[in-house]
Amino acid sequence: MEIPSAVYSNKSKTLPLLVLFLGVLVLVWWMNTPEGLLGKADAIGYTVCHRIDLRSFHLGERQLPLCARCSGMYLGAVLGLSYQWIIGRRCAGTPPWTVLALLGVLIFAFVIDGLNSFISLIPGISTLYPPGNTTRLLTGTGMGLVIAAALYPAFNATVWRQANPQPALRNLIVFSMLIGLAVGLDILVLTEMPIVLYPMALISAGGVIGLLTIVYSMVWVMVFRAENRYNRVQDMIIPLVGGLTVAFLQIILLDLVRYGLTGTWEGFHLG
């Protein structure tokens, strides 16, 4: 019997087992990570980000779960995915070359700012410009938009039986509106008002789980050779739960490895 038929023909057995396993994973993780919602967000950020204090925004004296660059990247990805979902349901087309060119500029800016920040750690070498959390946030957000622009059509092309062949980011006007929203989002973050930073901290950490779930759901679909067979979100419950389960497995394993090496939930310290 093929693996796909074994899994999907026994949905009534597979799904409860997956949900039970996921529930156990989440419970174990929840009980062994720092307290509070921000503590759990710290444990998520801990798996993907250096969490250097000086390179992060703060709620009062409390460091956010992700550094400025990673905060921007995951906030940008969440914004980009949400925007495309609203304006172009199930769109799987590649954006036009004008939009691709601007996405390339965002990638270039991300790389340059990252290298500039890294160079600042090396004594005796001059940077292109003084590195700071503002440029880290802006370039990180831009990279998040790039990730969303690549992931959204790839997901749609992988799972839906009848995907829309048109691109969601179909022209410069549509993409410029997304850029405007991203700039507005970054301006809100840069105010560093607690009423803004608190939900943004949770959204950025949730973005880590969301992106991992989307990617692993696609992997699940491809591994079980179930591409382009879904008509509704409800039909995708098994790969979605499976993707979320693998996402939490990764988070738990990386938490274990990093905590085992450092013995602390804090970020890395410079100097």
Rg over CA atoms, rounded to whole Å, is 20 Å
Mean of the pLDDT scores? 93
Largest sheet: 2 strands, antiparallel
Q: Could you state the order of secondary-structure elements as H and E? A: HHHEEHHHHHH
User: What coarse outline follows from CA principal-axis ratios?
Assistant: globular
Secondary structure tally, helices? 9
Which spans of ≥5 residues are poorly predicted at pLDDT below 50? none
Count the beta strands.
2
Strand order of the largest sheet: 1-2
| Helix content percent band | 55-70%
| Structural class assignment | mainly alpha
Q: How widely separated are the two ends?
A: 58 Å
* Whole-number total of structural domains: 1
Beta-strand share of residues: under 5%
Please, could you describe this protein's structure?
- The structure is a single chain.
- This protein is mainly alpha-helical and about 270 residues long.
- The protein has one domain (about 65-260).
- Helix content is about 65%, strand content about 0%.
- The chain has helices at about 5-10, 10-30, 35-45, 70-85, 95-120, 135-160, 170-190, 195-225, 235-260, and strands spanning about 60, 60-65.
- A two-stranded antiparallel ribbon has the order 1-2.
- The longest helix has 30 residues, at about 195-225.
- The radius of gyration is 20 Å and the shape is globular.
- The termini are far apart.
- About 35% of the residues are buried.
- The mean pLDDT is about 95.
